[in-house]
Write a structure and sequence with these properties.
Number of strands: 0
Oligomer: single chain
Largest sheet: none
CATH class of the largest domain: Mainly Alpha
Radius of gyration: 20 Å
Shape: globular
Strand content: under 5%
CATH architecture of the largest domain: Up-down Bundle
CATH superfamily of the largest domain: MFS general substrate transporter like domains
């Protein structure tokens, strides 16, 4: 682990800076949209378009990385996203923001795929959960830092958007200066959705459900808290509490998943996430301290589901398939991320803002139920045998 962490340190530093900028932008866009009078549906669609851009990015990222290499592709994606950030402050229009948000999503599909492929290429089955957990700690630490930048100026200012742009540009420096060996270039080919489903149904179905829930939360939660009329500082603190919880859980939960059946861990955290979201429905409009505590608890659970499912899927892929698998997972995540905010925002408009957490609680209940069903179809002993078997043996193939 120490040697792997040293080898990945430039990547992790780049991730921290990159996500600090994107974390600021992710909360700033819906917050500014509410202040400009955008409707909940318009805010939800802007969030969905981000995932639509990511969806498109997943299709072309393997070809771009194959042509330019990991580092140059990373630089290109970050530079375009940084330029797009400035457009939000210049053009105050829901339609223009949809285009810009889609462009940022397109770029981040490439950035995430490159980073996750790099980490997975350096990890192995016995430390992958911890390595992805460490990556997510850095990810959410950067996002928490980005949230606090909201306190430096008004959401109506130009400086916050320009600050987000600057962070995305600075993320180029660690990878541009590294001498670390990049992962193997991806093999020529397209996304492998059917192959993923045959190999690990939890990977395919689970990541789609995670996209539905996470896309709704990140697109609409800032607007939800803003509409409680508690002030922008409470929005920042709520998101920060959630992100601090997200930064706390990934490593210990990832370590646990390296020891026991990962599916059982996915089941457990999904069930707890559902319970927390039900609590937000019941008492989420009360004291701010309760709101922050529930946000922290939500971060402890929802943040680890994606890396757990990613680790579960990566346990069964080839070395040169890292970028393709990362892109395939992102593709399915984005499908959920497109649909989730639209459905949740429509429910919020028709019934009330609290439907955001009703929607997400139902999603996590479905995920827990699906994982439980899969574990009954394939007991833990069989799954562990497949994990322990050498690559290429029959035990590595899915059970029909």
């Amino acid at each position: 682990m120490p040697t792997a962490i040293v080898a990945l340190s430039p990547v992790l530093l780049a991730v921290f800076i990159l996500i600090a900028g994107n974390g600021l932008l992710t909360t700033l866009v819906p917050l500014r949209g509410v202040l400009e009078g955008f409707s909940p549906t318009e805010v939800g669609v802007i969030g969905s378009v981000y995932f639509g851009g990511m969806l498109a990015g997943t299709w072309v990222t393997p070809a771009i990385v194959r042509r330019a290499g990991h580092i140059r592709a990373f630089a290109a994606f970050a530079a375009v996203a940084a330029a797009a950030c400035l457009g939000f402050a210049i053009f105050i229009s829901p339609l223009v923001w949809m285009v810009l948000r889609g462009l940022v999503g397109f770029c981040f599909a490439g950035l995430y795929a490159i980073v996750e492929a790099w980490i997975n290429a350096k990890a192995h089955d016995r430390n992958r959960g911890r390595m992805l957990g460490l990556y997510n700690i850095v990810n959410f630490a950067g996002s928490a830092a980005g949230q606090q930048l909201l306190r430096l100026d008004s959401a109506r200012s130009f400086s916050l958007f320009s600050g987000a742009s600057a962070f995305l540009m600075l993320a180029l420096v660690p990878l541009a200066m590294t001498r670390a060996e990049a992962p193997p270039l991806p093999a020529k080919g397209r996304l492998r959705i059917l192959e993923l489903f045959r190999t690990t149904p939890i990977g395919a179905v689970g990541i789609l459900l995670v996209g539905l829930a996470n896309g709704s939360f990140w697109s609409l939660a800032p607007a939800y808290v803003e509409r409680l009329d508690l002030g922008a500082s409470v929005v920042a603190s709520f998101m920060t509490a959630m992100i601090l919880g997200s930064a706390t859980a990934p490593y210990p939960v990832g370590k646990l998943s390296d020891i026991v059946d990962r599916r059982g861990v996915i089941l457990g955290v999904s069930a707890v996430a559902c319970i927390v979201e039900v609590a937000l429905v019941i008492v989420g409009r009360g004291e701010t301290a309760v709101l922050y505590a529930l946000a922290f608890a939500l971060g402890l659970t929802t943040s680890v589901i994606y890396p757990l499912i990613s680790a579960h899927a990566n346990d069964r892929r080839s070395q040169e398939g890292a970028v393709h698998l990362s892109s395939t997972l992102l593709f399915l995540y984005c499908v959920g991320g497109i649909v989730g905010p639209i459905v949740a925002s429509t429910l919020m408009t028709l019934v009330g803002d609290v439907m955001l957490f009703v929607h997400n609680a139902a999603i996590h209940a479905m995920l827990a139920g699906f994982v439980a069903w899969r574990m009954m179809q394939r007991p833990p002993s069989d799954a562990q045998l497949a994990l322990d078997a050498p690559p290429g043996t029959a035990a590595h193939h899915p059970v029909p």
